[in-house]
Amino acid sequence: MTPLLNIEALNVRYHGVRGHTDAVRDVSLQIGAGESVAIVGESGCGKTSIALALMGLLPPKQITMNGIIHFNNQDLLSMTTKEIRRIRGRDMAMIFQDPMTSLNPYLRIGMQIAEPLWTHTPMRHAAARKEAIQLLDSVGFDNSIRDTQTYPHQLSGGMCQRAMIASALACAPKLLIADEPTTALDVITQDQVLSLIRTKQSEHGMALLLITHDLGIVAQTCERVAVMYQGQIVETGTTKTIYENPQHDYTRALLDAVPRLDGPRVHHLRTVGKETTPKQREEKKQSIQSTQRVVLDIKNLSVHFRSGRRHMRTVKAVDHVSFALNEQEVLGLVGQSGSGKSTLIRALLQLETPTTGEVFLKDWKLKNLTQRERHKLWQQMQMVFQDPYGSLNARLTAGRIIAEPLKNFSVVPRRQTRARVEELMALVQLDPAWQNRYPHEFSGGQRQRIGIARALACNPHILFCDEPVSALDVSIQAEVLNLLRDLKEQLNLTIIFVSHDLAVVRHVADRVAVMHRGKIVEWLDADRIVASASHPYTQQLMKAVPIPDPKRYHA
Amino acid sequence: MMPRIFRRLLYAPIVLLLLVTMTFFLVRLAPGGPFSNERDLPEEVESALNARFGLDQPLHIQYMRMVGGLLRGDLGPSMKHRDRTVKDIISDHLPPSLLLGTTAILLALWVGITIGIISALRANTLIDYLGMGATVIGISLPAFVFGPLLQLIFSMKLGWLPVAGYGNASQLILPAVTLSLPFAARFARLMRAGMLEILSEDFIRTAHAKGLSEFTIVTRHALRGAILPVISFLGPAIAAITTGSLIVEKIFNIPGLGREFVESALNRDYTLVMGTTLVYGTFIVLCNMLADLSYAALDPRVRDAEEVA
Lengths: 555, 309
What we know:
Structural class of chain B: mainly alpha
Shape of chain B: flat
Structural class of chain A: alpha/beta
Oligomer: heterodimer
Largest interface: A-B, 31 and 24 residues
Number of strands of chain B: 0
Radius of gyration of chain B: 24 Å
Radius of gyration of chain A: 25 Å
Largest sheet of chain B: none
Order of helices and strands of chain B: HHHHHHHHHHHHHH
CATH superfamily of the domain at 86-199 and 229-308 in chain B: MetI-like
Helix content of chain B: over 70%
CATH architecture of the domain at 86-199 and 229-308 in chain B: Orthogonal Bundle
Number of strands of chain A: 20
Largest sheet of chain A: 6 strands, mixed
Distance between the termini of chain A: 29 Å
Strand content of chain A: 15-25%
């Protein structure tokens, strides 16, 4: 029997202004009808190029492609655009990484879902509308008739991804290509979306090609895995063999880089590539235990917003939160998007006015601060942001980005700025010689290091890290997490670390607060998270963390 | 949607009152008056004229009378055109201007949007370069060069169209084309830029993945977002087209309001200045309002942001 999809010796070459790049090199892959296969690799390894090649979505003028792609007994590479168009969306559908930008913001959801029906079936108007409502129902919308009338920005990321799936399933395709379908979502939503994809796959008996950097989600979803590195498939096998007996070094490194909830807490995650062995440092063991001096004392803090039509609804973003942060403690703050984590941080930084409650920084009561006082406050509290791409000014060099707080807060005399910048870059393990480069010349992980160096420049007491690794690949995430751990020990930092991922938080934090609907519902000791969690929401969060172990799922 | 319309409608009279006030004092600040710069009138004739039009009254009384008149819809008599009220003059001269302006703006939109879309879809090809080259010429070629050039070619040499005048459709073509040229060029550039930006969005890739045709993708998925920059510019453009029609009206001898507007200012015809300014002012306020409202109608995100604000 011929497989549904047969890729043989596929090469994709991009032509740029300065020479060309081989994105895909000699890749062969087969997917049978109804089978689920994953391509795993870090960003830039060429996995998305394969997906786009299958869909015929690569820009024809900028690439050359050769090899064989047979799908459903048809030769895709010899087809005209018009013929491929008839297959796209009907026999082969695709969902993308960022559901918010992948849906058209100007069109109603219902119409976007019905669109493949209009295009590929004789179904029109009322019938297509009815079908769209049914599709929305089937992906878990509770008020589908109303929701066909909504626009994407009115829905959450998870709901948008569900709508994308509904639209992809509209014509019951034989193959669904999912390109990082959950990377932009929080753990619980990720879990829900993945299980939706699995259910739909078995319901429709369609084949699935899952493209991801996260080995954790693969174990749960796919039967076979192809590991991709620098344009080539370095290892393929059933999920079980890949996880239990990885042959290639890269596969092993990738597996070790995933922070896990099960198993012992490791001091350093293994990283992928050159930096595999972290420099052995004389570790100050005595500083691991935090002192009992309280730096930040939060009493009964609430932040409420008014929203909706005519501000009728009150949203309690932060609802009576109290806790004390000790010096040199790393506090993990966990919760899914919308749980109030970011608002809490903004309130602590005095960027949001609390509705009730008080915040003390040592003996300083933070209330109704003047501009000058806030300036003083921000020297002591600095932040590392989520998106290393958007949070660095693309028109400034790395050196100037890091030097800015030095000048702004007059931390060091002007003459010493350069020396301090170099010191900071060395601290975050960046080559100081790179200070004249611009952000786009750095990788995501390196950019996040610049962000960390910038935040540390003015010697803050407290460092806020808002989802610092959620935009990064697993392999790079491990590097940044290791760096934060090292820095904490080296500089005795006090950190509030915000994340939606319990496994990530567990790796860096001493104490973990679980936040749900603006309230802190549970406090956990990071060493005993699994054992001590009791609140149902924490259980739910824990269950949602994907575990890179197929035995757990295919027992 | 509704509260926004109401708010804008509330602002409109305030803006117009400011406009009226500034116009009133500015014209009076200019040296000379309606009866001072022609051949020397006898002293008593001039003061009799001033008394007849109330110009001997203190300024604040004149202002109050003027505002009172406006509220009653009375623009007063023209101070220069004997026996004609401002209302007469406007109702005679506004229709030609309005017709010319509307034709020109529709023409500019049609040509501009078409060229913009084609250029964007064929970006960095010969067609694109030709189109964008033409827009540079369109923006930089002044009406007093382009208009006579058209007259020379299409009327004098080819004899296809009348040189000038107003009355039938064929006489409208050349002035409308002349007037629309710079605006068509700007629309084309805005449309091309907007289209290119939208076409690089993720959701366009999604549309391709659904198997939609190029035509559907452009018309259904891209056009709405891509046209927004054009819409933003539409308000100021309509204003510029109506007030800028003066030169074109002059070249093609069209009895429009633009000519009256300028002449009234030169003649210190206080009441006519006020009348024409008010007509243009109201028109500009309305056009900007319409542009804003259609922007909100096209972009659901803007609509929702308005509701919350």
